[in-house]
Amino acid sequence: MNKLRISQRVSQVIHSPIRKFLPLVLKAEAKGIEVLKINVGDPDIEPSPKFWQALKKFPPQNLGYAPSPGIAEHTRAWQKYYTHFGLKLKPENIIPTVGCAEAMLFSLLVTTDPGDEIIVFEPLYSSYKGFAAVCNIKLVPITLRVDSGFALPNEQTIAKKITSRTKAIVVVNPNNPTGTILTSREITRLINLAVKHHLFIITDETYREIIFKGRPGSLLQITRARQQMILVDSASKRFSCPGARIGCLVSYNPAIMAAALKLAMVRLSAPTLEQYGLIPLLNNPRAFTRTITREYKKRRGAVIKGLRQIPGVTCYQPQGAFYLIAKLPVKNTEDFITFLLTSFQDKKQTILVTPAEDFYITEGLGRNEIRIAYVLDTKKLTRAMILLKKGLAEYQTRRQSS
Amino acid sequence: MNKLRISQRVSQVIHSPIRKFLPLVLKAEAKGIEVLKINVGDPDIEPSPKFWQALKKFPPQNLGYAPSPGIAEHTRAWQKYYTHFGLKLKPENIIPTVGCAEAMLFSLLVTTDPGDEIIVFEPLYSSYKGFAAVCNIKLVPITLRVDSGFALPNEQTIAKKITSRTKAIVVVNPNNPTGTILTSREITRLINLAVKHHLFIITDETYREIIFKGRPGSLLQITRARQQMILVDSASKRFSCPGARIGCLVSYNPAIMAAALKLAMVRLSAPTLEQYGLIPLLNNPRAFTRTITREYKKRRGAVIKGLRQIPGVTCYQPQGAFYLIAKLPVKNTEDFITFLLTSFQDKKQTILVTPAEDFYITEGLGRNEIRIAYVLDTKKLTRAMILLKKGLAEYQTRRQSS
User: Fold this and answer.
1) Is A169 helix (H, G, I), strand (E, B) or coil?
2) Residue B39: domain span
3) Which of A166, A187, B356, B400 keeps 20 to 30 A from A292, CA to CA?
4) Domain for residue A271, yes or no?
């Protein structure tokens, strides 16, 4: 028997469709076509000058490992950051991680063994699918619908999916890819379920401050099931620095923190310089996050306005983050996106969006949906929506005539 | 049933003993005692000024995600780096990672499924133990002995440990924690086994250039079983910048690279700035690595000279990296290290070393051994060996009188 095969678990990780489109993007660009990219959550906004200033203060000296539970001053800065959201934490409740991605992986590893199940809501941020495959666990999806603004179903409907192997419920709030925010009723529902069925709640709050109404907060503010909660967080979006690779894992549960610390020690440390760079921003977060949230609100307006002028498109008003899912009057958005990149241009421009299928677990769902990330300025976004409208019209005409 | 337990896999990760000693170190330091720390592989040598210069050239701009397969210029710099060791690679054979740690995790995930086995040689760099627990795989140790300079046993002895579940052999070369280098006979033996039994070889070459005789190289230079090899590598030690968290995974096998790329995409990217910082060093590595290797050779001399003056200590001449394992005339080195930190001082100084037990998988092995990391200058190392000698003498006297 030849054992030189790739493992089952990695074979199950699905390639992101982004990769498939990259060669097509490069070809279009080689032909002199500008591709407006609203497919990835990689913001065009520069980080605060304070980040660069703090970096420069780091003298050319020994670039040693940061301590596994974070550079003390950096971890204390997260601690201070959370006081803005009514959270009193001790440094030992916080472990800085290599982006939210690592916090996610740690949360899944700490709460599950192979064969265990996690309740998620689809469409779902696709890295969870990859990490679940790596962790040999099963994601059990509750399907939400664009037509109902991705509202959660009632307690009983969710409870039906809970088995003896279910260990946790994952929520992303504000949500990627839908841009929705959990209502207080929905949160109560989830906490009821977690308490009743002894489940952990993994709450991914990467987009906390990017909300367009009300005050930002955290599920951790709710004391009832606090010991069951793991918060995964990130500096990437709120401070517009995803390349810094700094996030954190937070929990009031000492057993969770002890377990996460073991994982943190195995991987040694998160990057040293960026931990220093983020200290001033974590110490005084709101100035920066208020500015960018105002900007994203304007952008949302431009996208929604543009989408509403396209016949047959179903969309809704997202309340946070910088994404939305739109249903298009096409059968297969992957095919449509391929068309946009290979056979369409308007004044030497086209767009790149993400096919939503990647965000679903249930086979066949999301094929007529796309995710838009509003990571360009309003002028470009307005133009992008016109391109989408024109592209759709041309695509439909061609399909009818073929 | 209360399901709110920490997972089995993370429960199996053993806490590093370093953590246990940290409070004792802090207590000693609070009493005004200087603790010479030769316990962790965190070099005192500053990175090259070229690293800082390259960082400064990065303008205060969008700090976006690096591409998952690395920033093109950075990946090409690794490609150029490897030409110094006779390796012709394409960019698609290289994925920059978050330190060697991530490359290690990717290698294990790509080659194994839960329940699979990996052949390792103990004493073993302890992160492999942690990652194996996380991956739900079994490390099957071949025990090497300090008395025979950690030489590998013959082919038959190793073959006896191979089962239907064995997927790979892991080697760390030059070795942490032993400082040994595989002989060409040993390498042939391993390749024979890999070919015969269809096993992957995961070769961790973090310390490639830090060798005290001969020319540095790579197992990948051997063409025979090239498709079965995964190289895990790191900029941390050779460029003295562990806090940069940059390593890489290399393979000539396209299936391995495709699988590793999927994992790289799930975790998004390695830090952006440090990828830029390392470009000039990777493009011209030898100037820096030659200088530090000379320094480590001097340090090795100081440590060996000191150890040979201590009665009852067994040691050998390490050939690379900056570690060695020494057998001490005590029953339990953890107890001895506790003594050094709590009940010993000489002119207000003491030392911290690592108990070697942490590097063994077989229960009970390594209890009378320590690992020394020569990460201080020769003067301090000479003094550290005197402290070890005096500490040992005092410890033995107290044990006899108690």
Assistant:
1) strand
2) 8-45+287-401
3) A187
4) yes
User: Which letter, b or e, does each residue of A195-206 get, where b requires 16 or more Cβ atoms within 10 Å of its Cβ?
Assistant: eebebbbbbbbb
Tell me the CB-side half-sphere exposure of residue A299, using CA atoms within 13 A: 27
Instruction: Enter the ipTM.
Output: 0.96
Read off the tokens for B106.
């990717």
Q: How far is CA A49 from CA A81, A174, B277, in A?
A: 18, 26, 20
Q: Which 3 state secondary structure label does DSSP give A368?
A: coil
**Domain end among A242, A259, A284:** A284
| Same-domain check for residues A384 and A315 | yes
Task: Give me the amino acid identity at A394.
Answer: E
Helix B127-134 / helix B99-111 crossing angle, nearest 10 deg: 40
Q: What was the pLDDT predicted at A343? A: 97
Tens of pLDDT, residue by residue over B361-383, are 999 999 999 999 999 999 999 99
Question: Per residue of chain A (402 residues), what is the pLDDT tens digit?
Answer: 578 999 999 999 987 777 789 899 999 999 999 999 999 888 899 999 999 999 887 766 789 999 999 999 999 999 999 999 999 999 999 999 999 999 999 999 999 999 999 999 999 999 999 999 999 999 999 999 999 999 999 999 999 999 999 999 999 999 999 999 999 999 999 999 999 999 999 999 999 999 999 999 999 999 999 999 999 999 999 999 999 999 999 999 999 999 999 999 999 999 999 999 999 999 999 999 999 999 999 999 999 999 999 999 999 999 999 999 999 999 999 999 999 999 999 999 999 999 999 999 999 999 999 999 999 999 999 999 999 999 999 999 998 886
Take residue A19 and report the two structure tokens written for it: 């990769």
* CA distance linking residue B18 with residue B357, whole number of Å: 12
For residue A137, being part of any structural domain is answered with yes
Longest dimension (CA), chain B: 67
Is A314 part of any domain?
Answer: yes
Contact (Cβ atoms closer than 8 angstroms) between residue A174 and residue A211: yes
DSSP H stretches of helix in B198-283 = 254-266, 272-283
Q: How far apart are the first and last CA of chain A?
A: 49
**Whether residue B261 sits in one domain with residue B304:** no
Residue B402 sits at the chain A interface (C-beta within 8 Å) = no
> Are A382 and A274 part of one and the same domain?
no
Suggest the residue from B63, B191, B230, B261 to mutate for an interface test with chain A (most A CBs closer than 10 A): B63
Indicate whether A228 and A295 sit together in one domain: no
Task: Tell whether B102 is covered by a domain.
Answer: yes
- Does A201 share its domain with A270? yes
Work out the percent of chain B whose per-residue pLDDT is above 70. 99
Same domain, B204 and B291: no
Of B7, B99, B256, the CB nearest to A110: B7
Q: Report the 10 Å Cβ neighbour count for A358.
A: 20
Query: 3-state DSSP call for residue B370?
Result: strand
Alpha helices (H) along B160-253: 184-197
| Boundary of a domain, candidates A253, A284, A315 | A284
Q: Do A306 and A247 fall within a single domain?
A: no
CB-CB: which of A1, A263, A270 is closest to B10?
A263
* Residues A52 and A277 sit within 8 Å (Cβ to Cβ): yes
Burial A263-275 (b: 16+ CB within 10 A, else e): bbbbbbbbbbbbb
Conformation bin of residue B86: beta by default, left when phi > 0, alpha when psi is -120 to 50:
left
Instruction: Provide φ and ψ at A373, rounded to 5°.
Output: -105, 120
Contacts B262 to A, Cβ<8 Å: 10, 13-15, 130
Residue A259 sits in the same domain as residue A139: yes
Q: What is the CATH number of the domain that holds A337?
A: 3.90.1150.10
- For helices A17-30 and A333-342, angle between their N-to-C axes, nearest 10 degrees: 20
> What CATH number should be reported for the domain holding residue A154?
3.40.640.10
Minimal CA separation from A72 to chain B, in Å: 14
C-alpha A336/C-alpha A332 separation (Å) is: 6
Residues of B with Cβ-Cβ distance to A110 under 8 angstroms: 6-7, 10
